[in-house]
Design goal:
- The structure is a single chain.
- The protein has a five-stranded mixed sheet, with no helix packed on it.
- It contains 16 helices and 69 strands.
- A hairpin with a 2-residue loop joins strand 2 (82-83) and strand 3.
- Helix 2 runs antiparallel to helix 5.
- The protein starts with a strand and ends with a strand.
- By secondary structure, it is an alpha+beta fold.
Length: 1290
């Protein structure tokens, strides 16, 4: 293999320097990083342990060779060599100066290319690709580079080439990858076992494998697959191995086909269908044990074990024949005869016991090693265990635990290749046996035997030589009293098993536990997910046992110790948060192992508790795995032991020679992996020859026997030479082994020519306000490629350039390429005008570090950020009112600006009120125009609105000067006023709500009227009253006396004249008022505003209980009825004429208002004169409710006061009502009826004069008659002949 040394292409170096980001996995090696991604790809793929073991092996080759190519002392495994008749040509590489970066890049590209090829058809490839994509991008690598030309490329192309070589090799390794690993000749002889149906009725050969048919099948990686799966990899013995030798295999013939079988020294246990044996049948013992061990899976069975390394592990022997199998595996209690470890050999302390339910231990063990949903499968599982081991703080990376500690990368690469190759061999060996022996799984055998009956006692029911042996408490017959017998005894005498009850007893895996109990043997299930049940390949031998024992051996060999770091490895299963298809474990369980072999042994037992393998599958797998581990390590270690004399490292003090290096010295150091012949003087040649114009070799010195140094001097010539070779010859080891010519490519990059700016192109010529927010850009074009890891320094200068208007935006500026830079410039608005501004550019170097030769380009830029403003405003109408809307709704506004404007863009004139748009004044853009470059005439339309008086500000927008600067400070306050709202009356307050005699004249009745806005006080409103009758003579508006109290309140006076009328419904009318903008008020009408009453009340009825008084009948009741309601608070004057004087004395003893139009005044005669006297009654002084005075009333001969001498002659009582004041429902009697009134009519009227009732007076001896008892409350008039009586019903 020819190796040439060189530096990575310069552009690639700078690209890496600029864009490489820290790895997502900085704490692990790049080999570990990509192995973890591969394991995730396996989890995202179908469950194919053979295929994944092969991929782990092939990827470890790619990663190892990607490293070894850069290590001349090490041999590659495939690249440049021949492997299994595949020839991998290789022409050597240019070793880069940045060796570690190149190795990382090569491994990354090889891994990305390889995994993408092998897993692009995975069900969840997208998730895998995201992981790969992120890992590549985080390091600045391209995911689109598929170039294989490593000779003209770099580490990326080399990685792609290595991956492609591995892929080509895999297409010829016997795996049938081209046809998706399909079987070419294997055919199963047994039809599928349908798990939803009882028993195994269709099986043909109970010793051969049969696939399963499930209602729904999900493989070990969680993918929904066909419900009936074919045998996976039965012909895998044909695949090219890692370390397996041809001598370890046989060619066996079966069913017309040849099988390549490795380690064919032990056969599985077979069922002799003609044999009547019972437990002595090794087949029956093996498969029945699986069902019995599943009786250990009930966490409530009360059995607890110490599962720490103190009690479990450290097996001292393994079975070799059927008898020792029975001794090794405890049939009823479970487990093996492991004796545990007395102490931890690392710490010297005993292991701490861990007592847990046996069922939790067995269930966690079965789940942990089952490699269930989203599993990396057993080969990947052991890679994870290796990673766990190497992550421990006490772990040392000394190969086999001896010698110097290796780098993390070198140790991982060697461990991965050793483990990967061994796992691949384990898969080939195990599956060669699986394919050839095609051995049955427990789910098929147990259902088969149970459905045939029992083979223990011919005298018992359901005996069959192919049945299952009976065992008390574990395997029995269903009797007639058994709950399993069925409603129709259809299960009588069938086989029942005391075992795990299965998925029929689990409704919710989060909370349910199936437990253990008796079930029909024909319905037995392994302790696995209901969608998986058993892997789709035969049982013998156990792949788990083979993988695990081989991997345990590898970990022992590469670490130099049988023990986990610290003497303990463990996995923690949290309480009720680990099991997948039922709740559990019931307590925290820690799977603990002292040694790697202990872990492998636990894995083997897990497959029995899980119902997948009988013991006969287990032990051969362990034994074969041991041999495979030994063989694999020997093969890998022999590869790693090769060491050739070679140049292993170089360093050069300066690779890039630029103008700063004139007169400097360069040192080149070369290091070898062994002692060299220092008597030979190395020969140094620089290519091409023109390098000697600048570079001279001054000296060559051996520093020690494995290190020499070359000193070179730098001249002052201007030279560009980007590709160079340093040839080193005449080197040999001290054993006389000559090294081939060493070529260091591109170790010297010569560039002493300074770059210059070819052009500077701003994206604008004039900077204006329009560029303030987003800034501008300027593109620099350079004469040659420049360093893009730093931003140029850009400054500005010029006459009148005082303010820092232009600032370079370094955060957003960007190198578009190595010769083109786009600078973004931020602007600060100083409202200025500058005609010429110059650029000054610094801090630009070419890719080799030479500074600029011209800092000030010829291009300039102009600044105009001064904003225009309005210098004068002239408006044709400064007050807009309602009349304007009706008569002249258009006016003009003339704007004069302070500088030349862009007359191609008409500005917009707006009006605002308190910063809010006023939309009733709008500019007509069609009739608005520029009169010249500084004067704009806007036509303004006034539109209807309802606003009250407001001051409006003028706003001018979209006015630009000739350079596009927008007007600012465009708001001009109080330019116009608008009042488009009629004033309204808010309040009307009168001095009284009743106009009466009390308000007669021109000063006693007025109305205060409040308007909603400032009014024109020089213009008085019209105020008048309107009723159902003409009020002009009664209420007269006194305009001359009325006036405005202030700007919004008006007092209207009225002349009130006494027209002796009443009007209850008088409306107030107000109109013709004007606000200060001359808008006429809205007409105001206040209905029922006031009442008018100038009519004086009068008495319409008077009645007395008697017309004659004497000292015996001395009570006088006078009832008065008025024609309207009276003010009961004012007194009515009742006097008699002539005035009653002594000796006669008549005193008022009662004064009572029956209602507001009915008054009773009572008098008591206390003494009388000697002779009769007749008196008139006079009534005055009362007022109605409006305050009008009562019209005086007088009635002559109203009352006679008898003299004391005439009392006996005047015994006749006057006709009257008894009572004449009463309540509703009481009897009313007319008394003292003279005989001449007999057969006369009594008429009863209401207060309105309506006749309500007529009664005929009947003759009787009592001179009385009942006239009513049914009158409602009110005032009534009762008339009979010439008598008129008043009746009041309360």
């Amino acid at each position: 293999m020819k190796l040439n040394f060189s530096i990575v292409r310069l552009a690639a170096i700078y690209t890496f320097m600029m864009f490489a980001a820290p790895s997502l996995y900085t704490q692990v090696s790049v080999a570990r990083e990509w192995n973890e991604i591969l394991l995730e790809a396996i989890r995202n793929d179908f469950a194919r342990p053979t295929v994944h073991a092969r991929n782990l092996y092939h990827h470890s080759i790619a990663a190892y060779d990607a490293w070894a190519i850069y290590q001349p002392e090490h041999e590659t495994y495939l690249i440049g060599d021949t492997l299994d008749n595949y020839i991998s040509p290789f022409e050597g590489i240019n070793t880069p100066l940045e060796l570690n970066a190149a190795i990382k890049e090569t491994i990354s590209y090889a891994s990305f290319y390889f995994i993408k090829n092998r897993y692009h058809s995975s069900p969840d490839y997208n998730a895998t690709y995201i992981l790969m994509y992120n890992a590549m991008i985080a390091n600045g690598y391209s995911v689109n580079n598929i170039n294989l030309d490593y000779e003209n490329g770099g580490p990326a192309e080399l990685g792609n080439f290595i991956a492609q070589e591995i892929i080509n090799y895999g297409l010829n390794d016997g795996s049938n990858e081209l046809l998706e690993f399909e079987n070419t000749f294997y055919t199963s002889i047994n039809p599928p076992l349908i798990m939803s149906e009882p028993g195994n009725p269709d099986i043909i050969d109970p010793n051969r494998w049969q696939t399963l048919t499930l209602d729904s099948t999900i493989d070990q990686s969680g993918n929904l697959v066909d419900n009936t799966l074919p045998f996976l990899s039965p012909e895998w013995g044909n695949v090219s191995p890692f370390a397996l030798k041809p001598s370890m295999s046989n060619m066996n013939f079966r069913d017309g086909d040849w099988y390549k079988v490795y380690f064919d020294s032990v056969q599985p246990s077979y069922l002799n269908i003609d044999d009547s044996s019972d437990w002595e049948s090794f087949y029956k013992w093996n498969h029945s044990l699986v069902s019995i061990w599943q009786s250990h899976l009930d966490p409530n069975d009360g059995v607890s074990w110490d599962i720490s390394p103190a009690s479990i592990g450290n097996n001292s022997w393994y079975p070799t024949d059927s008898l020792s199998y029975i001794q090794f595996y405890n049939l009823t209690e479970g487990g093996d005869p492991s004796q545990g470890h007395t102490t931890n050999p690392i710490t010297g302390e005993p292991y701490e016991p861990q007592i847990v339910p046996r069922a939790d231990y067995a269930r966690v063990l079965a789940e942990f090693w089952a490699d269930g949903i989203d599993s990396e499968t057993p080969p990947g599982h052991w890679f994870e265990i290796f990673h766990y081991v190497s992550d421990q703080p006490t772990f040392e990376r000394s190969w086999q635990g001896q010698g110097p500690e290796l780098s993390q990368l070198e140790y991982d690469l060697k461990a991965h290749l050793t483990l990967g190759g061994t796992m691949h061999d384990a898969a080939i060996a195990a599956w060669s046996l699986k394919g050839y022996y095609d051995y049955i799984r427990p789910v098929s055998s147990i259902r088969y035997m149970a459905s045939h009956g029992q083979s223990t006692d011919p005298l018992l029911p359901n005996y069959n030589t192919n049945g299952i042996p009976l065992l008390e408490n574990y395997i029995a017959l269903v009797d007639s009293l058994d709950p399993l017998v069925g409603q129709n005894f259809e299960h009588l005498n069938k086989i029942k098993l005391y075992t795990w009850k299965g998925h029929d007893f689990i409704d919710d895996p989060e909370v349910d536990v199936a437990g253990v109990g008796w079930i029909l043997g024909e319905n037995w299930w392994p302790y696995q997910r209901p969608t998986f049940v058993t892997p789709p390949f035969s049982g013998f031998v156990s792949g788990h046992s083979t993988f695990s024992r081989a991997a345990a051996g590898i970990l022992e060999y590469i670490t130099g110790s049988a023990y986990f770091p610290g003497g303990l490895g463990e996995f923690i299963a949290e309480e009720n948060d680990f099991l997948q298809f039922e709740e559990g474990p019931s307590t925290e369980v820690r799977l603990q192992w002292a040694t790697y072999r202990d872990a492998a042994d636990q894995c083997s037992l897990s497959r029995i508790w899980g119902g997948i393998h009988p013991p006969i599958d287990d032990i051969p797998g362990r034994n074969i795995g041991t041999l495979i581990g030994q063989n694999g390590f020997q093969k890998a270690d022999s590869l790693f032991a090769i060491s050739n004399p070679s140049l292993i490292a170089t360093s050069i003090s300066d690779t890039i020679i630029n103008s700063f290096d004139f007169g400097q010295t360069i040192a080149l150091d070369c290091y070898f992996n062994r002692n060299m012949n220092t008597s030979n003087q190395p020969i140094i040649t620089l290519v091409p020859a023109n390098l000697s114009q600048l570079i001279t070799v001054n000296s060559i010195t051996w520093i020690d026997s494995a290190h020499f140094q070359v000193e070179m001097g730098v001249g002052t010539e201007i030279l560009e030479q980007f590709s160079s070779l340093i040839r080193i010859q005449n080197i040999e080891s001290n054993q006389g082994i000559a090294l081939e010519t060493i070529i260091l490519q591109d170790y010297l990059i010569i560039d002493t020519k300074r770059p210059k700016i070819l052009s500077l192109n701003p994206n604008v010529d004039i900077l204006t306000d329009t560029h303030i927010d987003e800034g501008i850009s300027a593109t620099l074009l350079m004469s040659e490629p420049c360093m893009t890891n730093e931003m140029p320094q850009i400054d500005f200068f010029g006459e009148n350039y005082i303010n820092p208007t232009l600032i370079a935006d370094l955060n957003n500026s960007v190198w578009l390429s190595s010769i083109s830079h786009k600078a973004y410039l931020n602007l600060i608005d100083f409202n200025e005008e500058i005609e010429v501004v110059h650029f000054e550019i610094n801090n630009i170097k070419d890719i080799h570090g030479n500074p600029l030769s011209n800092s000030v380009p010829i291009e300039t830029i102009e600044i105009d950020t001064r904003n225009p403003s309005i210098s004068n405003i002239n408006i044709s109408d400064t007050l807009i009112n309602i009349d304007d809307l009706n008569n002249n709704s258009i006016f003009t506004t003339l704007l004069t600006f302070d500088e030349t404007m862009d007359i191609g863009i008409p500005p917009e004139v707006l009006f605002e009120n308190n910063s809010e748009s006023y939309n009733s004044l709008v500019m007509n853009p069609f009739q608005s125009l520029w009169l010249d470059s500084t004067t704009f005439e806007a036509e303004i339309w006034a539109l209807p609105d309802t606003n009250d008086f407001i001051h409006l500000d003028l706003s001018c927008v979209s006015a630009y000067d000739r350079n596009g600067n927008l007007i600012i400070d465009s708001l001009y306050l109080n330019q116009i006023e608008s009042d488009l709202k009629n004033p309204i009356v808010l309040t009307t307050i009168a001095t009284t709500d009743m106009i009466s005699d009390q308000t007669l004249g021109n000063q006693l009745y007025y109305i205060d009227i409040g308007f909603n806005e400032v009014m024109d006080v020089e213009f008085k409103p019209l105020v008048y009253h309107e009723g159902t009758v003409n009020l002009n003579a009664s209420i007269q508006y006194n305009l001359s006396e009325s006036y405005y109290l202030d700007s919004i309140n008006y007092r209207a006076y009225f002349q009130i004249n006494d027209q002796n009328i009443e009007e209850d419904s008088i409306d107030l009318k107000i109109s013709l008022g004007r606000d200060k903008s001359q808008n006429t008020q809205l007409n105001q009408s206040n209905p029922l505003f006031v009442e008018l009453d100038t009519k004086n009340p009068k008495i319409i009825g008077i009645n007395a209980n008697t017309t004659s008084l004497n000292t015996i009948d001395n009570l006088l009741d006078v009832s008065l009825l008025f024609d309207e309601a009276m003010d009961v608070a004012t007194s009515i004057s009742v006097i008699y004429n002539p005035i009653i004087s002594l000796p006669a004395e008549l005193n008022q003893n009662n004064y009572e208002w029956i209602d507001n139009d009915s008054l009773v005044v009572s008098f008591l005669l206390s003494s009388a004169g000697a002779t009769e006297q007749i008196h008139a009654i006079e009534i005055s002084e009362g007022t109605d409710l409006a305050g009008n005075l009562l019209i005086e009333f007088q009635e002559e001969d109203f009352i006679t006061i008898q003299g004391t001498l005439d009392i006996s002659a005047n015994k006749i009582k006057p006709i009257s009502l008894n009572p004449n004041i009463t309540t509703s429902g009481q009897k009313i009697t007319l008394v003292n009826i003279p005989k001449e009134y007999y057969n006369k009519d009594v008429n009863i009227y209401n207060s309105s004069g309506k006749l309500l009732k007529k009664i005929k007076v009947e003759a009787n001896n009592n001179a009385s008659q009942i006239i009513s008892s049914e009158l409602d409350s009110g005032v009534y008039v009762v008339k009979i002949c010439k008598e008129t009586l008043r009746l009041i019903i309360l």
